[in-house]
Structure formats: structure tokens, C-alpha cells
Amino acid sequence: MKNPVHTISELLTESFEIIDLSHTLVENIPAWPTHSRFGHTLYESYESGDIASHYQLVMSEHTGTHMDAPLHFIREGKAHYGVDKVNLQQVFGKAVVIDATDVPPNGTLSYQKINEWEEKNGTLLGGEIVLIRYGWDKRWDIRPRGNEFLKDWPGLGKDAAEYLVSKEVKAVGCDTLAIDSYVASDNPAHYELLGNEVLIIENLNNLQKLPKYSLFFAFPLKIGSGSGSPVRAVAFVPRIEV
Q: Membrane-spanning regions, if any (predicted)?
């Protein structure tokens, strides 16, 4: 009898392509203005006579492709918990990609737009991870070229966030700096999603490489009482569309 773990491994390797949805962490990548910037400092090196090489990392919990934990915006109550308490089932599972590349800078993705997507592609069933593709990742770059990524991005409208909560999705991801638009000073999507324990994944990359449906993973670091964590987001895409 075949080892079931071996069988699963063969199935994943032969039947699926892995798509990397994460940005590479290097110095001078885009960062929220009030957050610490990513630093990568050499501490030991072969050239200095050390037997090994290693670097010190300095970064915010919200560096690069990352997850927001509920306590990032929720001050108290049932949803006030950190990334170390996140149920990992919420960031693993069936993902759907909603194309929102027609949403203009500073605009919002509305409930109506999501409803139109459902009419064409099928109703959200609950338990999905919704990935919103604005195409904003093409602006990602190191400073100063990456400064265009840091302004005027579109976001998720309040009515759309409320609808996704009602559909019981597990998480919502985007390829912008934040789930709310650049001009949304009251952060309605953050409060609506995190307040209802729907996780947020920001700064995704390569969503244009995904079909409408895929198998998605984005596991966080287990940071005690962390408000968020960098993630390595990946999707498994069938090699033959069914």
C-alpha cells in the first residue's frame, strides 16, 4: 500500500503548478509611512572569517506581502486577538480572484461589482478566500521608483466588505498597500472585515497569473500578540483546467 503522504505529494507535484504571490523583501521596498522600513544587515560573513553567513532583519509586522490580524484595528471584544491566535484554516483553502482592474485610482470596489462577478462566475458559497486584483502590483518597486505604489491606490468599499462578511468568506486579499483605498481615512473595510474575524492579506503579487479558482496558502509567523505578520503567499493552480 502506498504511503498516503507520498500519494498526496505526487498529486500536488504532478497536477498543480505553484504560483508565488509574494513580493521579495529587499531594502527600500514600499512601506506604510509610519511603519519601520525593511532592513537587512550583514552580521557574519565568510569574507570576515566567520564559519557561516547570516543577516539581521529589521521590519514592521506589516512588511511586504503580509497579513493583518484582528487586533490591528479591533481594540476589544471577541475579535481582539493577535496573529498567533489566528486559525490557520482561514488562510488555507479555495480562493477566488475578482478582477477589479477597471476600478480607478482612489476608487472603490462596490457590492454591485462583486454581484456582477457572481452572475458571471457563480455565487460565493462561504468559506472562500477572496483575492482582489486591481493590477496595482505592477507599481511595486524600490524607492524612488516605488513611490507610485504608495499613493492613490483603490480599495474595497464598505458595502462590498459588508457583503463579503455576510457571505462568510475566510479572508480577503489585495495587491494594494491596504484593503481600504488611499482616500478612505475612516478605514471601513478594515473595521468591517477584522471586526468580524475575516483576515486581510495585503501587497499580494502576480494575481494576474491565477485562474478564477485556485488553492491558496498564506501562513503567518507565530508572533505573540502580533498585529500582523509577513506571509509567503502561494497558490496551487491545476496544470490542466477542469
A: none
